[in-house]
Write a structure and sequence with these properties.
Blueprint lengths: L15 E5 H18 L2 E2 L9 H10 L4 E3 L2 H7 L5 E4 L6 H8 L6 E6 L2 H14 L3 E6 L12 H13 L3 E7 L13 H20 L6 E4 L16 E2 L9 H5 L10 E9 L5 E4 L3 H4 L12 E3 L6 E5 L4 E4 L12 E6 L2 H5 L4 E6 L2 E7 L6
Parallel strand pairs: 1-16, 2-9, 3-4, 4-5, 5-6, 6-7, 7-8, 8-9
Antiparallel strand pairs: 1-10, 10-11, 10-15, 11-14, 12-15, 13-14, 16-17
Helix pairs in contact: 3-4, 4-5, 6-7
Length: 366
C-alpha cells in the first residue's frame, strides 16, 4: 500500500494489522539459536503469516525451507524458497494441478497418509514430468490425520518407495493436541517419544529408516530436542506469537509481534469500551487464557476483549480505572494469530512505533 511508509499509527484506517519488526527479529534469532544448538532443521509453517517477506526473513535467519498447507501458500512461498513441504493430504485434481505447476526448481515434498492420496500424487507427478518427495503422516495423538500403527506406516512407506515419480523421504507428525504450559509437558514428551519410537523402530527393522522425521509445533517448540529421532521442526506461530502462546509460556508477552490496531468507538455502557475490531478482524477463537475472552490489549494485558460481534469488540474495563475516550487507539493481541492474519489484506510493519512498510498477505485463499 503506497503512501504509508514512515507514517504514524494515526494515519491508518482501523482495524489494521500491525507487525513489530524488532520483535519479529528477536523471535527469529531465538529459534535460530535453539535449532542450531540442538542440531534440528527449521522449516517454519507459513500458514501463520502468509507473506513472502516474513518467509524471506525466516530463511535469512536459518530456516531450510517453508512448510505450507494450501496451493496458494505454495505458489507464494516458492517465489522466495526452492524447498517446499506441502503438509496437507494432496487430494483432488485441482489441488494437485496447482502443486505440479510450481516452478521446476522447486524441491517439493508432500505429506500423506493413504494409498489413494499416493496414487493421485504419483499420476499427477508422472504427467507433469517431475519427481516429488513424500512423507508418511503419523498420528501421535492428534487424532486428525496420519496412520495409527507402525504396520500401516511400513506398508505405506513401501508403496512410496516402489512408486515411480515419487521418492520416499521419511515421516511427519504434528503434536497439535499438546497445548499444556511448557512446564507441564513432561508426560506429553514421554508419550511422543514412546509413540514415535515405535514407528521408527518398525521402519528401521524393515530397512526403511527415514531420512526426515518432521514434527514440532509452537506450544512444544522449546522441548522439541527432547523428542528422540526428530530431524526438523515446523513451528508457525512463534514468528509473531499470540495470546495463546503467552498463556502457556511458549513466549513472553513482550514477544508478541502481531497486534490489531483498533479505535474506541463507544464508551456509552458503564464498565465497557467498544472498539471497531470484532470477529472479522480478530477471529472469534476461544483461547487458552483462564480469563477467557478473544484477545487482550498489548500494553494492558489485563484488559480483555470479553466478547466480539462482526464489527465490534467489547473491552471489559469493569475492574480497572482505565477509561479511554472515544477516538483513542488501542492495540489488541488476538488469541490465535494465524486465524487473525488471514482476515487482513495487508500487514503494516512497525519500527519504533512508526509504519515503515506494508506487506501483502499474499497467500490468503486456496
Amino acid at each position: 500500500m503506497r503512501g504509508m511508509e514512515n507514517a504514524s499509527l494515526e494515519a491508518l484506517v482501523t482495524p489494521a494489522a500491525l507487525v513489530d519488526l524488532d520483535r519479529v527479529e528477536t523471535n527469529l534469532q531465538r529459534v535460530s539459536r535453539y535449532t542450531r544448538e540442538h542440531g534440528l532443521h527449521w522449516r517454519p509453517h507459513t500458514k501463520t503469516h502468509k507473506t513472502a517477506e516474513l518467509t524471506a526473513l525466516q530463511l535469512t535467519a536459518g530456516a531450510v525451507g517453508a512448510t505450507v498447507a494450501t496451493p496458494r501458500e505454495a505458489e507464494v512461498m516458492a517465489a522466495v524458497t526452492p524447498d517446499i513441504l506441502f503438509a496437507y493430504p494432496p487430494v483432488g485434481a485441482a489441488r494437485l494441478a496447482k502443486l505440479m505447476a510450481l516452478p521446476p526448481r522447486t524441491k517439493l515434498t508432500v505429506a500423506l497418509d493413504s494409498l489413494e492420496a499416493l496414487a493421485g500424487l504419483r499420476r499427477a507427478a508422472e504427467q507433469a514430468g517431475r519427481n516429488v518427495g513424500v512423507l508418511v503422516e503419523l498420528d501421535l495423538g492428534m487424532r486428525r490425520v496420519g496412520v495409527t500403527t507402525p504396520a500401516q506406516a511400513v506398508a505405506l512407506a513401501r508403496a512410496m518407495a516402489a512408486s515411480p515419480a515419487v521418492t520416499w523421504r521419511g515421516v511427519i507428525f504434528y503434536p497439535g493436541h499438546v497445548r499444556a504450559p511448557l512446564h507441564q509437558q513432561d508426560e506429553a514428551v514421554r508419550e511422543q517419544n514412546a509413540r514415535l519410537g515405535a514407528f521408527l523402530e518398525e521402519l528401521e527393522r524393515e530397512q526403511l529408516k527415514p531420512e526426515v522425521v518432521s514434527g514440532g509445533s509452537t506450544p512444544m517448540l522449546w522441548r522439541s530436542h527432547e523428542v528422540k529421532g526428530l530431524t526438523e521442526i515446523r513451528p508457525g506461530i512463534n514468528v509473531l506469537n499470540d495470546r495463546n502462546s503467552a498463556s502457556i509460556g511458549a513466549c513472553a508477552w513482550d514477544d508478541c509481534a502481531f497486534s490489531v490496531l483498533a479505535t474506541v468507538v463507544s464508551t456509552a455502557v458503564p464498565g465497557q469500551v467498544v472498539i471497531d475490531a470484532g470477529s472479522k478482524a480478530l477471529a472469534k477463537e476461544e483461547g487458552l487464557a483462564p480469563e477467557g475472552g478473544y484477545g487482550a490489549l498489548l500494553d494492558r494485558p489485563d484488559i480483555i476483549v470479553r466478547n466480539v460481534s462482526e464489527e465490534h469488540g467489547l473491552l471489559d474495563v469493569s475492574s480497572t480505572s482505565w477509561r479511554p475516550r472515544v477516538g483513542d487507539l488501542v492495540r489488541v493481541v488476538p488469541n490465535h494469530v494465524c486465524a487473525a492474519v488471514n482476515l487482513h489484506e495487508r500487514l503494516h510493519v512497525l519500527r519504533g512505533g512508526t509504519v515503515t512498510n506494508t506487506w501483502a498477505v499474499a497467500a490468503r485463499g486456496w
